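User: My instructor asked us to take a sequence, write out its structure as tokens, and then describe one feature of it. I'm not sure where to start. Here is the sequence I was given:
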Amino acid sequence: MNFLSLMQNRYTTKYYDPNKKISKDDIDSLLECLRLTPSSVNCQPWHFYVAGDESGKAKIRGCVLDFNLQRFDNCSHVIAICGKTKVTEEHFKKVLDKEESDGRHSDITIKEAQDKSRKHFTNLHAANEKEMAAWSGMQCYIALGTILYAAASMGIDSTPIEGFDAAKADELLGLKDKDLTCHCLVCLGYRDINDSNVILKRPKSRLDKKDIISNL
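Assistant: Let's start with the prediction itself. The structure tokens for your sequence are:
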């Protein structure tokens, strides 16, 4: 299936089959897609927490609002997508060292220029934790798009969740001490045969291109 077909056919799943679990190989592939997600100046200002069993999900269940609990409880896996509220020198160095080990820098001049550029553009958003969180959140939503369509390409259903208590999620995951905040949750699994979108055969609905696209 090409990407346009994925866009035309994917929908947000409302009801999951609790008896169907995503295989380890498929989860590993999805997490690799997350790892490869692009970010501004390759800063990668995020961390992903993966709950793949009842014990893991129980650790963050307390932040999920009531109307989302049914899909949270019945899905196979949940990923908490978290962004940095502060980017430290340690993180800058880790990214730079990884780029070097991966062969991204052909000489010291390029390495130094890359480091300087990344710090400059990242630190434009470092006035305070709230501003940095807003910037890292934009990067995290690129990761969200990645996981939704990577999953669809593998026949795996998904539900992005903003219906949760972010402050509670941060507390449950101990994120404040890690300079992180939770931006969204993603449920993954396989739709129930009685999922409302299946039963009602709802067509996808978006505004027409003429309403949202203009030529310059």
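For the description part of your assignment, you could build on this observation: The chain has a mean pLDDT of 96. Try explaining in your own words what that tells you about the chain.
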